[in-house]
Amino acid sequence: MDVISRELQRSAPDYVVYVPKSVDGSTFDTGNEHFLVFPGPDGSLLSVWTQSSYEGAGDHRIMFTRSDDGGQSWSTPVHVVGPRRPGDGRMASWGFPLLSRSGRIYVLYNQYQGIDDVIHQHTGTMDGVYSDDCGQTWSKPETVPMPRSAFDHPNPAVPSNWIIWQIPMRDLTGKYFYGVSRWVSKAVRTPPLTSSWTQWETVIEFCRFENIDDDPAVSAIQTTWSPASQALRVPHYQQPLLSVAQEPSIVRLPDQRLFLVMRTMAGCIWYSVSADDGVTWSNPSPLLRQDHGLPILEPLCCCPIYQLHDGRYVLLHHNNNGRVNGCSPEDTHCNRRPAFIALGEYRPDAQQPIWFSDSKVLMDNDGERLGPLKRIDIGVYPSLTTRNGEDVLWHPERKFFLLGKKITAEFLADLSVPKA
User: Fold this and answer.
1) Can you tell me the distance from the alpha carbon of 32 to that of 396, in angstroms, rounded to the nearest whole number?
2) Closest C-alpha among 237, 238, 290, 287 to residue 266
3) How far is the C-alpha of 60 from the C-alpha of 82, rounded, in Å?
4) Model confidence pLDDT, tens digit, residues 60-110
5) How distant, in Å, are the alpha carbons of 39, 184, 343 from that of 312?
6) Interior CA angle at 94 toward 151 and 382, to 5°?
7) How far apart are CA 277 and CA 257, in angstroms?
8) Are 178 and 206 in contact (CB under 8 A)?
9) 0.90 cut: is pTM over it?
10) Are 130 and 138 in contact (CB under 8 A)?
């Protein structure tokens, strides 16, 4: 059995979406991440993701594929925008979809413009394309007008540093809405203590897409952004004046409030709640198993929360504070495994409105390194779909394979959430 065939089965996937054609990067497709699967307007499952030779290689591109049989098989991926290999133009990263009520599919992304502020992967304009035929053809790229932020470089010629990493949700008025990870420009950020990228200052802002259902040209998309004064901040564990708050994940509560979790450099997940549909948010706090309980540990890694088809919630995380497998909190190349699930239930009278069970290992890759960067992370930059009572986590395994894992009632049966 060759390396790819063996490693493909290591995490016991239920669905296989994409398998790279090489291990060493020679086919320019061995970096696959930011994997967002969503229902298409014609009953299909659609997906966009960021592909490259490897993360940061300079050839980030946006790819698209579809499944007409519920994820069992997938079409040959279509290149949407971005370079096909290093040196073939400026990269396009972190694409996310917006589906209008007419069925038009927008994909917006971070477009590198040749100017590095924090890092070339995050410094860029918000550009986009759209398709009116379910991904068979795509419009020419255009730029979405993006207002300047107090966290940007004072020179307006330097683009913002940002990423939207999950599929935006509909707000109570039907507009698309989501949290934005905003890396603070080097020109205005709190100085880091070391050269580690884990100390680059970040905050969370919020963006509302006002007119997607009008099917505008990409350049005519209108956005409203939260004021910088209301950005969410979380103190770094060594330098409290420096904020590291990134990659928000948001769910709707039964009482219509919004519940957000985020990755931090504090050794645990933090959360915030909005009672006015995302206009304002509570001061972030550590996420606990229950009121007055223990914090839920997490290194500097995404930790999304999703609502299941039965109304309960699952939190995907790694259940360590960064100091695991011989790592320090800064060693993100080795502390992002295994992937755990905690079951969450709504507690209407609690201070923290979702309480969580103990955590259970969902999947692992045994720490076997793979790909040009020899990655071992699992359960990072995923998405979740619910169809016909089946919940599926779609995830980039070691940022190499694109796979699907069922979240079944049988798996969750032995997880017990504390009672109010």
Assistant:
1) 6
2) 237
3) 6
4) 999 999 999 999 999 999 999 999 999 999 999 999 999 999 999 999 999
5) 20, 35, 7
6) 115
7) 7
8) yes
9) yes
10) yes
